[in-house]
Amino acid sequence: MSLLETITAPADLRALPVERMPELAEEIRSFLVSEVSKTGGHLGPNLGVVELTIALHRVFDSPRDTIVFDTGHQSYVHKLLTGRHDFSKLKKQGGLSGYPNRAESEHDVVENSHASTALSWADGIAKGRRLRGQGQRHTVAVIGDGALTGGMAWEAINNIAVDKTLPLVIVVNDNERSYAPTIGGLAEHLATLRTTRGYERFLAWGKRSLARTPFVGGPVFETLHGVKKGLKDIVAPQGMFEDLGLKYYGPVDGHDEQAVERALRQARDFGGPVIVHVITQKGRGYQPALDDVADHMHGIGKINPETGLPFEVAGRIWTDEFNDEMVRLGAERDDLVALTAAMLIPVGLDGFAAAYPERVFDVGIAEQHAVTMASGLAYAGLHPVVALYATFLNRAFDQMLMDCALHKAGVTFVLDRAGITGSDGASHNGMWDMALMSIVPGLRLAAPRDGDQVRRQLREAVDVTDGPTVIRFPKGDVAEPLEAVRQQGDVDVLFETGSGDVDLLVLGVGAFAGLAVDVGAKVAALGHTVRVVDPRWVLPVSGTVLDLAAQAGAVAVIEDNLVTGGVGAAVTVALREAGQQAPVHLHGIPKRFLHHASRGQLLEELGLTAESIVADLQTRLS
Ligand SMILES: Cc1ncc(C[n+]2csc(CCOP(=O)(O)OP(=O)(O)O)c2C)c(N)n1
Ligand SMILES: CC(=O)[C@@H](O)[C@H](O)COP(=O)(O)O
Ligand SMILES: [Mg+2]
């Protein structure tokens, strides 16, 4: 039996002699590479936190003490050390979530995979524990250098730093990367702190050599040690944290398990809020990850563990259509600029960045800043394109509403991973954007049905200068081209049984246009007259949709978004405001959080398949 197999709970880990930790770390790394290469997942981030997570669970007594992981994608080692060793269905339905999950373990707290929230969670937990007379229970937040570029983290630090008795340990897991190298002033500050390792080595040398010098050695070392702080402040102004009132320990070699344990014990016993700055390496111990300069295997699909190469070559995805068209547009429009929140490659701006590096802004994991900064760029006469994952726009809704829309800023938002993504769990589904955007005055939203429409609608969007425009498309392979049989106003007609009135008008939103045609054909085969359309610009509801609805006995709207407040709801309101009484049947995502599973499994479960929708419509059509 391997050492790892003997660990079913943190107590088993703490019972082991510290000398066996390198052996355990080696076993864990081998496990991660062999298992995650079979399933896909966040291999790089977890390889970087092996010793750190071992030390955390040796120093703190979870779940009596609470360990919170920011973003949570780096919690695989935590799962192993809390007894979860079956990674065979990682991120798959019925298997382990790729993030902390309370249903899996009492050791898991924050399931939300949106970055920069851990310090706020920890602030609340620590203060709550103290209020309830449990101040002896420690709270630890592990936050990456990338997540630390998120504004919310600094809101929390501002509150934590002034509370001198708060038993809260902040572990900054500094591997110098989000996906790409971490950007901004904080990253530079952390970099200067990292150089103090030179000082640590210098001081360690000083201690050894001076300690051997009789009489003068000790006092001289103490003087040197006193100078250390000054020197550090000169070269490595760690003062930022200490000036805020936070005790700072570090930088600590995050792969020296005993050093991390020592630092964590000091921090635990300090009796107030403390930052432990740990230097780690993303992808540590696995050369293909270290050689992956893009993102050190931040997130992978199935790979050959020997070579690190993917088994399947990815097809053309929706993101590629955006990526390529942005490069073409950039050549035609010198007013076009682009913004990303630490995800340049995942959102498809790497092409534009390579061609026009001075016209791309990576703001770090700071979506709120990106949206308002874009409003400023528009005010300065540029046309910004803000590329985000749909779910991450949620946190910048007020900036969209009050900075962008209120000021009629000509900003284009491109939302990737819109709709159900599935395997990353509830917080990663891009299922709220159209509901949120439907209440923003002056906003126009397009949902392309294929690659051609991505290109066309992106071009239409960047021509709009008097308000925000949004283009949203899902994760994965781009849909096959779907030609319109004719246009009617600004709507593409995709299928119809005849030119006159119909029993049913089906609106297929974006990537669901193909599904809508499938539904229409099946309903027609049941003897009904049908028309299937792609409204293209789905918000606000166009007059052409109202005209088409006036020619139908009923309307069905099929969308990869929350039904509540979605396009179907907007169509219903528009019809009623126009005095039209046709029933509207809504097919979309119900208002609940979705467990992790594949996109296909969730669509099946939610009845978002042609068979399910037709069966439902059949009961409703007279
Ligand atoms: C609000 C938000 N924006 C973007 C992301 C996408 N994302 C996931 S992990 C990650 C990088 C995190 O970097 P860091 O915190 O340094 O952790 P590391 O992966 O380096 O361990 C990003 C940008 C996210 N999860 N949440
Ligand atoms: C943890 C996180 O937010 C990202 O790493 C996310 O998991 C990436 O998702 P995609 O795999 O869809 O790019
Ligand atoms: Mg990082």
UniProtKB/TrEMBL annotation:
EC number(s) reported in the record: 2.2.1.7
Cofactor note as given: Binds 1 Mg(2+) ion per subunit.
Keyword RNA-binding: no
Reaction(s) this enzyme catalyzes, per UniProt: D-glyceraldehyde 3-phosphate + pyruvate + H(+) = 1-deoxy-D-xylulose 5-phosphate + CO2
Cofactor(s) for this UniProt protein: Mg(2+); thiamine diphosphate
GO biological process: isopentenyl diphosphate biosynthetic process, methylerythritol 4-phosphate pathway; terpenoid biosynthetic process; thiamine biosynthetic process
Domain Transketolase-like pyrimidine-binding: 316-480
Keywords: Isoprene biosynthesis, Magnesium, Metal-binding, Thiamine biosynthesis, Thiamine pyrophosphate, Transferase
Function, as annotated: Catalyzes the acyloin condensation reaction between C atoms 2 and 3 of pyruvate and glyceraldehyde 3-phosphate to yield 1-deoxy-D-xylulose-5-phosphate (DXP).
HAMAP family with a match to the protein in the record: DXP_synth
Protein name: 1-deoxy-D-xylulose-5-phosphate synthase
Species per Swiss-Prot/TrEMBL record: Intrasporangium chromatireducens Q5-1
Gene that specifies this protein: dxs
